[in-house]
Write a structure and sequence with these properties.
CATH topology: Carbamate kinase
Strand content: 15-25%
Number of helices: 4
CATH superfamily: Acetylglutamate kinase-like
Strand order of the largest sheet: 1-5-6-4
Largest sheet: 4 strands, mixed
Distance between the termini: 27 Å
CATH class: Alpha Beta
Number of domains: 1
Order of helices and strands: HEEEEHHEHE
CATH architecture: 3-Layer(aba) Sandwich
Number of strands: 6
């Protein structure tokens, strides 16, 4: 379905399976104030609310997925999937990436 992104699908599956969190692997260390590849002054956020993501138009997930997570109280953890050990740190609850809740 062209109107149903992988972000939305992952969020929906996380909600349906009563997961504790949706884990989103990306090519950067989490959610930034701007694209860190283009802007060396971009700031990494440790924590954000769903509404901050929407209001600031931060490129975390598509808006449908963020709203779905917000409305169902499903946290989203964004981390760098190419960083050695990052997924393990996320699963252990260690300080890695950005938490959106």
């Amino acid at each position: 379905n062209p109107f149903f992104t992988t972000d939305t699908a992952a969020s929906l599956r996380g909600i349906e399976s009563n997961a504790d969190v949706v884990i989103k692997g990306t090519k950067v260390d989490g959610v930034y104030s701007a694209d860190p590849v283009k802007d060396p002054d971009a700031r990494l956020f440790e924590r954000l609310t769903y509404d901050e993501v929407i209001e600031k138009k931060l490129a975390v997930m598509d808006t449908t997925a963020i709203v779905l997570c917000r409305d169902n109280h499903m946290p989203v953890k964004v981390y760098n999937m190419n960083k050695p050990g990052a997924l393990l740190r996320v699963v252990r609850g260690e300080n890695e990436g950005t938490l959106v809740e």
